[in-house]
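Researcher: Please translate sequence to structure tokens.
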Amino acid sequence: MSSWTTWLAERTNDIASSHRAQLGLTAAVALGIGVSATIGLQGARRWYNIHDLKDSIPDLESPHDVEKINNFGGAEPVEHTDQRDDGRSAALARRARLGDYDEDLILEQLARNRVFLTDDGLGKLRNAFVIVVGCGGVGSHAAAALARSGCGKLRLIDFDQVTLSSLNRHAVATLADVGTPKVVCLQRRLEQIVPWTHFDSRNQLFDAKSAEKQLEPWSDGQGPDFVIDAIDNIDSKVALLHYCHKNSIKVVSSMGAGCKSDPTRVFIGDISASTEDPLSRSTRRKLRLLGVKDGIPVVFSSEKTGPGKAQLLPLPEEEFAKGSVGELGVLPDFRVRILPVLGTMPAVFGLCVANHVMLDITGYPHDYLPSKARDKMYDGILAQVQGLEERVARHLGDDPVGLRIPVTADDVGYLIEEVWKGRSVISGLASRLALTRWRQPAGEWIDHYSPGQKADRLQLDDLVCMTKDEMLRHEKEVLREGRKPEDLYEKSVCDAVERRRAEERAFRAQR
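Model: Translation complete:
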């Protein structure tokens, strides 16, 4: 032990007597202290950052200055006095709308549109008044495109506010806009791009009762040149489209962009031609009940769902357990499930809508509006139903002369397209379609008014869609021989028929 102590003392004396060794030891100690200090500083910085972030999130019970929510679920406008850029932009916009803006600068900004649409077309667009109802993913992109292209007057209508989940698809919203009305956000951002455009922003819910007021002329008496429907609630959408159709106001409607991912399958066409879209199907169905079957251009996707593709997310069981599902939404009858939306698709729909409006207003050629052109097919099927009812009447011992059925070609189109989705309920085939009674008529099914005047009591839910070959077999075995459909078809087919018939009865009750 004494030898170890002696050796250590000798080495210490050597270090003390060596200047180089002292410098090395000092550097090593300094390095260690520096590393420790750096690590400690980084740890402290992380700790403070985390606590600053936590402190910035208010408790649910603590007071805050986030915009108040009105009784529509939308945010009340708040003056942002501390945002100098927004203030300067708003002031510039006010001056520009009063004429204090160089016309040459406006034409330079619109130069590409000018050479495309010509001076005459651009002039029409700059004098146009367009109303955008719904300023979310689709509506914000449509409004932004119209404003950037030179549209002179824009009325923006939406009851909702910008949320964090809006930012994946909204055209102009930023984190700073979360909690503000969508119409206020949209106007504030677009004024920074096109200060000469006139805006009328209305933080309101659109419905049938407010349609006349919300679609009223501009303050100078100019009526709307076009209305854009970018609503995702079916009842509000139907109310808007029906009002525009009834009052001869040009309107274009965006169907569902949710669960869609293929931009090559996005089309612009008449509402009667839109397919593979639940929102479009429900809208068409309700409009038909109001007497509107076509004449409304829509943007829709023909993309079909499939394995691995997005689906409407189901409502969690715990939400059902809370009581009435209708009470879970922001507003009555508004969807409470999360709709999967790829952020690019609403933009595609919105830009297509804006493109259609610009071409129509400026008179630019656009012959892309397709139609199913199936009226002749519906007339043929109607004649087939008439003939079938006459044969059944004759077989059951009644004179078919003068028999009239209470079904029109429009009813045939409604049944084929909306109720039976354009396919045979038996085989799923979509060609050579026909309509036939599902069961053999029983009891008094013909009203006799006078000689040669008879009325068939046929109801729309009595008719099912089959191919012509399937209809002939069904006529022989069910309508003539009296067999029950349950004895002839699989249970899945019979269940599908009853389900579709129940849907038709429910829709008919709304007429």
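Researcher: Any highlights?
Model: The chain has a mean pLDDT of 81.
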